[in-house]
Amino acid sequence: MGHLTRRRLWRLVSVKTARQLGKVRSGWRTVRHRGPSQIQFWFIALIIGIAAGFAALGFRHAIAALQSMLYGVENPGLLLTYVDPLAWYWVLLIPVAGGLLVGLILDRFTDDGRARSVADVIDGAALQDGRVEQRAGLASAAASLITLSSGGSTGREGPVVHMAAMISSWVAERLRADGITGRDLLGCAVAAAVSASFNAPIAGTLFALEVVLRHFAVHAFAPIAIASVAGTVVSRLEFGNVTEFSLGAGDTLAFYVELPAYLLLGLVSGLVAVILMRGIFLAEDMGNWLQRTTRMPRWLRPAVSGLALGGLAIWYPHIIGVGYEITFEALTGVIYLRDAVIFAILKAVAVALTMAGRMGGGVFSPSLMIGALTGLSFGIVATAIVPDFSGSETLYALAGMGAVAAAVLGAPISTTLIVFELTGDWQTGLAVLVAVSMSTALASRLVDRSFFLTQLERRGKPLAAGPQSYLLSVHSAALLMRGKDSPSAASEEACAELISQGVMLAPEATLDEALPQFEKWGHSFIPVVAPAKEGGEPRLLGALFHLDALRAYTRALAETAAEEHS
Predict the structure, then answer these.
(1) Using DSSP, how many helices (H) and how many strands (E) does the chain show?
(2) Distance from C-alpha of 303 to C-alpha of 300, rounded to nearest angstrom
(3) How far apart are CA 482 and CA 279, in angstroms?
(4) Which terminal Cβ of the chain has fewer Cβ within 10 Å, N or C?
(5) Where are the alpha helices (DSSP H) in 295-388?
(6) How would you classify residue 410: left for phi > 0, otherwise alpha for psi between -120 and 50, otherwise beta?
């Protein structure tokens, strides 16, 4: 009797288990084919947040391990302490060897020899339905790891953000997510990566919305916040609830009397940020020119930059790596005015050299160091001129750190919060906000909003102007044209007449090329023609109608507006 009871119980358990598994499979099919519901999406956001948090954590540990191998570093935050006593030839050769390895990796696994970073994530959000490249992204992560570990003067936030974006892209592909869902998943991953990297959950959330998605839609806020908190929890389980920079007590702000000085600091910081950004772009252009004129193989370019960095580091090892040690010294006021100015200039040069060599890494951490040094220099002068109405010069360092970084990123809200969360000092918010607002207002007029958007503008992707501009580059003539076999196709005779007049479009031509042609010629359609083969004639594929082009553009604008206001 007992044997039969056990058999019936086992059969009942098996049936229930099979039913539950069937529900799971059915739910997964529903998620893939119809998209996740709100609750399901929150769980997916949580998983992505945890995964991105571990990716950021693993990247940070990998840098520490490789730095320990190359420089004998026991504490990554004290890299300068270990580099300073090294023999000069090691300081010179390690960046060269790192650059050579970076060049070989990027040459082999990317189509342009360039490491991917935050600008590519913004591009993916705007133009690729929230997806980024996987193969090139993995190569870029490896290249950035080597760069940051072998003396490259960049930051770790760019590679970490792109690594997280690869995770969300993989999930989006598995779910067959549409553009809105793909972008939301991307925002979740980015928020978690920034939060885990800097132990800054509030700033991580706003960074994803302000910098990457570039809107504050309500529907995206909850899952992004969940992912951001998950990334922070992963970081705090490893490092504890500690701030990146611990400031000393006793700093005070002379409030309203001193605020004009912080307004002036904001303007100075905005100019410093512009000089830094334009210096990087100038160095990149010079690198391109040098590569063309000398016919240098692209795999050698990072090694040449490594040689220049190593040569500079022999005399000034302060430029090596991310620069947190110098940033902390600036925030605590232990650097003299002359040294602060010299270190800021040399750090900007080192960042430009690293970027010109396409070695990988981000610009956020270097901008924090340059900003802290700028603020400290300004503060030393300001407090010396008006000592009776001045607070501590270290408050100027804190405000300058936020002001330069905010101008570079084009993200005043999230950068202000990152500064607060990095330092744990919430009492000086007024000074930081004043400086940040002035610096971003000035810098955004002198560049295309931010470093990342200017990068994309230089690549022919005008995202800074807004969706009304960049959406024109999404739709190609080949996708919108009416083919020759279409019932409403343009007559071949009329197309031949226009072609004879030189009025035609290539299949890859986008709306930003096509719409001006309609305005110029005044025709209702323009033939779409395949390029002529050697010795042959151009081949007519169809025609792009003005009405179809305008419909597609209007539809894209409406969908973008609906997403941003949902």
Answers:
(1) 24, 3
(2) 5
(3) 47
(4) N
(5) 301-315, 324-331, 337-356, 364-385
(6) left
CA-CA distance, 245 to 425, in Å (whole number)? 10
Mapping DSSP onto H, E and C, the string for 201-265 reads: HHHHHHHHHHHHHCCCCHHHHHHHHHHHHHHHHHHHHHHCCCCCCCCCCCCCCCHHHHHHHHHHH
The structure's pTM equals 0.86
36-239 shares its CATH topology with 255-466: yes
Q: How many Å apart are CA 549 and CA 409, to the nearest integer? A: 34
Ordered per-residue pLDDT tens for the chain, 566 residues: 445 565 665 565 565 565 655 544 554 454 454 456 667 888 999 999 999 999 999 999 999 899 889 888 777 667 777 787 888 899 999 999 999 999 999 999 999 999 999 999 999 999 899 999 999 999 999 999 999 999 899 988 899 999 999 999 999 999 888 889 999 999 999 999 999 988 888 889 999 999 999 988 888 899 999 999 999 999 999 887 766 655 554 555 565 678 889 999 999 999 999 999 999 999 999 999 999 999 999 999 999 999 999 999 999 988 888 888 898 889 888 999 999 999 999 999 999 999 999 988 999 999 999 999 999 999 999 888 877 766 778 889 989 999 999 999 999 998 888 887 777 666 677 888 899 999 999 999 999 889 999 999 999 888 888 888 888 888 888 889 998 888 888 988 899 889 888 899 998 898 988 999 998 888 999 999 988 776 567 788 999 999 999 999 999 888 888 888 77
Residues 6+ apart with CB under 8 A from 247: 331, 332, 394, 398, 423, 424, 425
Mode of pairing for the β-strands spanning 482-483 and 539-545 = antiparallel
Q: Which of 154, 167, 173 is nearest to 196 (CA)?
A: 167
Supply 378's token pair.
């300004």
Residue with tokens 């940020």: 273
Which of 132, 139, 254, 234 has its CA nearest to residue 183?
132
Per-residue exposure over 503-527, b if at least 16 CB sit within 10 Å of its own CB, e if not = bbbbbebbbbebbebbeeeebebbb
Question: How far is residue 103 CA from its own chain's centroid?
Answer: 21
> Which residue, 368, 376, 405, 395, is CA-closest to 258?
395
Give the right CATH number for 255-466 from 3.90.180.10, 1.10.3080.10, 2.40.110.10, 3.60.40.10.
1.10.3080.10
Which DSSP symbol is given to 425? -
| Residue 155 bridge partners (DSSP) | 362
204 vs 212: CA distance, rounded Å: 11
The CATH class of the 475-564 domain is alpha beta
Distance CA 532, CA 534 (A): 7
Top-tier CATH class for 36-239: mainly alpha
Kindly report the CA angle at 530 between 525 and 533, in degrees rounded to 5? 150
Which among 237, 27, 63 is positioned nearest to 143, based on CA atoms? Answer: 63
For the chain, domain boundaries: 36-239, 255-466, 475-564
